[in-house]
Design a protein that fits this description.
- The structure is a homodimer of 458-residue chains.
- Chain A folds into two domains: 2-121 and 307-457, nicotinate phosphoribosyltransferase; 122-301, TIM Barrel (Alpha-Beta Barrel).
- In chain A, 39% of the residues lie in helices and 19% in strands.
- Chain A is built from 16 helices and 20 strands.
- Chain A has helices spanning 2-8, 35-43, 49-58, 63-70, 100-131, 147-159, 168-174, 184-189, 193-203, 217-234, 249-262, 278-286, 298-301, 411-423, 427-430, 444-457; strands at residues 13-19, 30-31, 77-80, 86-87, 94-99, 136-138, 164-165, 209-211, 241-244, 269-272, 293-296, 312-320, 323-326, 343-349, 356-363, 373-377, 387-389, 393-396, 399-401, 439-443.
- In chain A, helix 1 (2-8) packs antiparallel against helix 5 (100-131).
- Chains A, B: GO terms for molecular function: nicotinamide phosphoribosyltransferase activity; nicotinate phosphoribosyltransferase activity.
């Protein structure tokens, strides 16, 4: 396509929006993530000698196009919502404007990164919401869909609220605390469990999280852990706690808590893992399972109950001979009809407060400044009754991205930003099950433009 | 753990098995994939200056361990089933033997790669089985879980039977045909659909697959495609066909086929995409939808209906002071109890044929050579009645992996190998829904060893 655009429409510029139509796990919103990696990839985007040789031998492309790639220089402008922003269906997560030939070429790279990281940040938000303040460790590297997926997934998990990761590469790369406990193989490597625990405590007297389910949690694991904790206390150390990774977590944690408390280890923490997700966490906490920390593996790092964020990259406008031509994609499925034109998205707050009540997508040249505004539900499956909204403060969601400079926000800064943005949303939008559908309007002018383009094509 | 093992058990060697307990999508077997990347990663495994600096500043490790990492030299032996092999629950996909400290360190890297690629190869096998010989193009890069996931996922998709990929990087890297058609943005970029199609045909007269659903498939897309096909024929070219990416694929392809045939384009192919998987393909072919090619995106590249292959890495034995000590992991969940000891897995064939009827996992020092063999169902949830099997040819599944040499088998060689191995399995094991559970036995000697270790611990 890029080869064709360079031949047929070499001077056109285009605007593409990235947005999604459905939220994973039937949630209300997505947590945007991946912008920092998109910027990093775009900064170094080029085609090396082996790429050029490959393109030549395909014998599909013009010489002019091959030259264009060999001398590729990015000339695009990007606006995007900051990482960590909760964002709703149909709202552009990112907008890219530049030469048509270039903007087309970026589609797969940019969508791949944003879809992946936003998916995992969204799942992490759900799991951390269920954990209700208890630390959640990201434990999924061995089950992630490939090496990158583990490392960038760990980054996204922190953005969504996790505290640490067992992925040491991600820990190094993004300054995340590395966390974990021994595995069963530590225990198996020694002749018996007690020896295994003692050797561990010898090496890590202040980091003595013991995995108690290699043979039998209640008959062997916890009694042996208690013996080792007593030895640690006798030598002036504070025992950390235990981890349980199999069996009935509710039953075992209650028994374990009793046994630890009776032995005087009220401070010893109980960490659990084993195929947990937000639903299992909710059920365990509902039955008051005494859990201090969660380790979440495959169900977080793959968002396994809803493993795809279906972000799309759609043309919104073409700039040709100085004219902006808004563009639309029509479809037999109503929800696949796009919002045409260059747009801006605003979050609307009750005046003078930090409490948001709705968003509005408007045309870029409209003024959205708190004066009465005629709007329409942007949900394509809703009834289209115009309403007037008034008395609001509007804050734009997208910001200009500086491609010449790397963003050096740390993942925990992004996590804090995200928590702040979440606090602005109504409680009923944040809950996990059957959340209230927060209203995303489009301005009357945008709705009229969409209708005019539909009428023109149908 | 590696730091601890180096201190406590520096001379021990260990054997770990990689296997899985459950097959994605309730299938009968997994297609093994990823070995070539595991070998590549192990060949280059090292810790650079920045890694060493990072480990030092964690202040968790001995100086001896940091030195060990700085001078890391892999000293492991690997056996594995060749890529493309169909393999069943509990059978070691790979076995790694080496210094305990090293073998422990490889867990996450090796599991990540094998779990990911085997998952996608397995899903691709299902989709290609449903497509019944029609070419399947891998179209998922923009929805994959990160960049690696797209590229190695495309590789695995070919192993599982796909014909081509839309991921040009994967195409280049693994010599796979790059495939795809125009996107909706090509059509939108021009003033009208007919012009868009004509411009495409001008550039690619012999590659004229036209996407007909940007505005309206039956009223606009196909009539315009037919006009362009007539112009192509008039100038001596053979029209390729159309792609439909939305709406009801069954209804639209039947109408499209009629319209193309009536216009004399019986040779024009119909390609479909849009959230397809093996179930939708089965349903479409059952209603005789006239489809020539499938493009499969997110549901293949993430195996979205079953997005995790839960391969595990479990200690089977320790070698200490010249003695081999078999090891077991016990659990409250029967299915989590491991098979101890150094083992070998055999596929059993009716004598003198290429038809397999069962597999058997035996201890490494047993002779499995067709003489009567006492075996037990290895499924931990089954009743344990010993049986004697006789009259069989046994072929070992794992092969020694040469770590000093890169395997340069092409992905299509692996695909052919896989098809050959699949043809050896009973038809009823290959079907997609409710497949027959192919029998995986363990030898009586292995079962006895497992029971002895269980008795010793319980």
């Amino acid at each position: 396509m890029a080869n064709g655009f360079l031949q047929q429409l070499p001077k056109d510029r285009a605007t593409f929006d990235i947005f999604f139509r459905r939220v994973p796990d039937e949630g209300s919103f997505v947590i945007a993530a991946g912008l920092q990696q998109v910027v990093g990839e775009l900064q170094k985007l080029h085609f090396d000698a082996s790429d050029i040789a490959y393109f030549k031998q395909l014998k599909l492309y013009d010489e002019a196009f091959i030259d264009y790639l060999a001398n590729f220089k990015l000339d695009c402008e990007i606006t995007a919502v900051p990482e960590g922003t909760p964002i709703f269906p149909r709202e552009p997560l990112m907008t890219i404007e530049g030469p048509l030939v270039q903007v087309q070429m970026l589609e797969t790279l940019v969508l791949n990164i944003l879809n992946h990281q936003s998916l995992i940040a969204t799942k992490a938000r759900r799991i951390n919401y269920a954990a209700a303040g208890r630390p959640v460790m990201e434990f999924g590297a061995r089950r992630a869909q490939g090496p990158d997926s583990a490392t960038y997934g760990a980054r996204a998990a922190i953005i969504g609220g996790c505290s640490s990761t067992s992925n040491v590469l991600a820990a190094k790369q993004f300054q995340i605390p590395a966390a974990g406990t021994m595995a069963h193989s530590w225990v198996e490597a020694f002749d018996d469990e007690l020896t295994a625990f003692q050797k561990w405590a010898e090496i890590y007297p202040d980091n003595s999280a013991l995995l108690v389910d290699t043979y039998d949690v209640l008959k062997s694991g916890i009694p042996n852990a208690i013996k080792v904790f007593q030895q640690l206390v006798a030598t002036g150390h504070q025992p950390v706690g235990i981890r349980i990774d199999s069996g009935d977590i509710g039953y075992l944690t209650k028994k374990a808590r009793q046994m630890l408390d009776q032995a005087g280890f009220m401070q010893a923490k109980i960490t659990v893992s084993n195929a947990l997700d937000e639903n299992v966490i909710t059920a365990l906490l509902q039955e008051q399972a005494p859990i201090d920390n969660f380790g979440i593996g495959e169900k977080l790092i793959t968002s396994s109950s809803s493993p795809v964020l279906s972000g799309v990259y759609k043309m919104a406008a073409i700039e040709r001979d100085g004219r902006i031509i808004p563009k639309i994609k029509i479809s037999g499925s109503r929800e696949k009809i796009t919002l045409p034109g260059r747009k801006r998205t605003y979050r609307l707050f009750y005046p003078g407060t930090d409490k948001a009540f709705a968003d509005v997508i408007a045309l870029a040249d409209e003024r959205i400044d708190g004066r009465p505004l005629e709007v329409i539900n942007s949900d394509p499956l809703s009834v289209k009754n115009p309403t007037v909204i008034q008395d609001f403060d509007a804050r734009e969601l997208q910001q200009t991205v500086n491609l010449a400079q790397s963003t050096d926000k740390s993942v925990f800064e992004i996590q804090r930003f995200s928590k702040g943005r979440l606090a602005q949303l109504p409680d009923e939008t944040q809950r996990l099950t059957n959340p209230d559908r927060y209203m995303v309007f489009m301005s009357k002018s945008l709705a009229d433009l969409q209708q005019a383009l539909l009428d023109q094509r149908l």
